[in-house]
Amino acid sequence: MQEDLKKLEVGSREHNELSMKSMKFMGPMLKLSMRPIIYTAIPFILLIRWFTDYFALVDFRFFGIFSWFWFYLIGSIIFSSILRKILKVV
After folding, report:
1. Nearest-angstrom CA–CA distance, 42 and 66
2. CA angle, 67 as apex, 62 and 39 as ends, to 5°?
3. What is d(CA 39, CA 22) in angstroms, rounded to the nearest whole number?
4. What is the largest CA-CA distance in the chain?
5. Most buried of the four, 8, 12, 23, 49, by CB within 10 Å?
6. CA neighbor of 42 nearest in space, from 54, 33, 34, 31
7. CB of 41 closer than 8 Å to CB of 35
8. Whether the Cβ atoms of residue 37 and residue 29 lie closer than 8 Å to each other
9. By three-state DSSP, how is residue 70 classified?
10. What residue spans define the domains of the chain?
11. In this structure, what DSSP letter does residue 8 have?
12. What is d(CA 57, CA 54) in angstroms, rounded to the nearest whole number?
């Protein structure tokens, strides 16, 4: 459908009819795309919440200034850039 829409002129009758047909598929496609987000987001939110509660009690600072979140963020950026260079990922 997308290829056919690209071939047609925007605003034409055929383009409008085909776009209306494609809108019928938007609901089921949205439902299917939301499942992985929910399966990923809920554990991630719970994990972040647990980290926040744990390190709030411990009051541990990395290098004396970074909280766990900033240490994780900066560390993941550095670690991923090193892995990209080693594995030669563009």
Report:
1. 26
2. 120
3. 27
4. 65
5. 8
6. 34
7. no
8. no
9. helix
10. 1-59, 60-90
11. S
12. 5
Both tokens of 32, joined, read: 């299917």
End-to-end Cα separation, the chain, in angstroms: 32
**pLDDT tens column, 47-84:** 988 888 887 777 677 777 887 788 889 999 999 999 99
Tokens standing for 23? 């809108």
Q: Return the structure tokens found at 29.
A: 């496609």
Contact assessment for residue 67 and residue 52, using Cβ atoms and an 8 Å cutoff: no
CA 47, CA 41: separation in Å to the nearest integer?
10
Give the type of residue at 59.
Answer: D
Which pTM does this prediction carry? Answer: 0.39
Question: Which pLDDT belongs to residue 81?
Answer: 94
Phi/psi zone of residue 8: left (φ > 0), alpha (ψ -120 to 50 degrees), beta?
beta
Query: Residue 6 corresponds to which tokens in the numbers above?
Result: 């690209």
